[in-house]
Amino acid sequence: MSADTDQTRPRADTASVTKAVVPAAGLGTRFLPATKATPKEMLPIVDKPAIQYVVEEAVEAGLHDLLMITGRSKRSIEDHFDRAYELEEALAAKGEEGKLRSVRESSDLAQVHYVRQGEPRGLGHAVLCAQAHVGDNPFAVLLGDDLIESADLLRRMIEVRENHGGSVVALMEVEPEQVSLYGCAAVETTGEDDVVTVTDLVEKPSPEQAPSRWAIIGRYVCDPAVFPVLHRTPPGRGGEIQLTDALKELARTSPDEGGGVRGVLLRGNRYDTGNKADYIRTVVEFACRRPDLADELLPWLRDFVERQERARV
User: Fold this and answer.
1) Which of 76, 82, 175, 241 has CB 3.0 to 4.6 Å from 122, enough for a Cys bridge?
2) Does 24 share its domain with 154?
């Protein structure tokens, strides 16, 4: 190959991030029996399924090519992002333009592809299922359990990746008693206030073993070098292939080989819909912001809290 031809090929560390991967194959056992026949990703936040918020975030960050990693009993996710012609015709015939727009919105958001994860073998295995789709390009990973209100975090992560190469994780500072719920990072400061260099990662450590209080939340921008590492990563905690273990190895790998991991510190709001209490809090908070609901809901909430306090007394 000539030198001129070689220079025209984009290098892996400078290629733009254009694709997003959304793992959605989990069983959702914490929400049984609601998730017996309904994917947890389709549980509504007021009147929109949680997964749609995630797709909207990716699109707002400039990622219009999305791959959903699904499994059995996830067909309703595909249906949600597809056209519903009979429903649309019925709404159009009734002149319900607002509802018609909301129904069409999900199918017009992005180009959504699907691949099945044959068995639930962890986040690392779910990411491996995306290899054929993303190829040798960097890509974002968005977990549906975490709702990030703004696309600024993902945009910033993509910017850091394009400036420095390697992989990027989103980090949030948590209380010491919460570190065992997350993968935690050992970090070093950089010349940028919101960016750190990740030197080590520990999956769900005890508070005594945690390298810091900086926890990885559900946003990643991965270099394609993660794929060969995942292929040789043995099952870790819970018998699953952990993405954290692969990123830990990449943190110690030369940048020339796609290594290096940086963290972007979350400065906005993040909502964890992966457990019941946080899910309910998220629904209530999102509802209270809605002009069509707040005037009725907020007075009821105040009265409800007062009644609960009187009952305790």
Assistant:
1) 241
2) yes
Q: Which domain holds residue 310?
A: 275-313
How many Cβ atoms are within 10 Å of 115's Cβ, its own excluded? 17
Q: What is the 3-state secondary structure (H, E, C) of 75-98?
A: HHHHHHCCCCHHHHHHHHHHCCHH
Whose CA is closest to 50, among 266, 286, 268? 286
Q: What is the pLDDT of residues 131-183, one digit of tens each?
A: 999 999 999 999 988 899 877 999 999 999 999 999 999 999 999 888 888 88
Q: What pLDDT is attached to residue 13?
A: 56
The pTM score is: 0.89
Shared domain check, 282 and 188: no
Instruction: Judge whether 2 lies within some domain.
Output: no
Phi and psi based region of residue 122 (left: phi greater than 0; alpha: psi -120 to 50; beta: remaining): left
Residues 266 and 279 in one domain: no
| Residue 189: other Cβ atoms inside 10 A | 9
Residue with tokens 């964890």: 272
What is the distance, to the nearest Å, from the Cα of residue 199 to the centroid of all Cα atoms in its chain?
A: 22
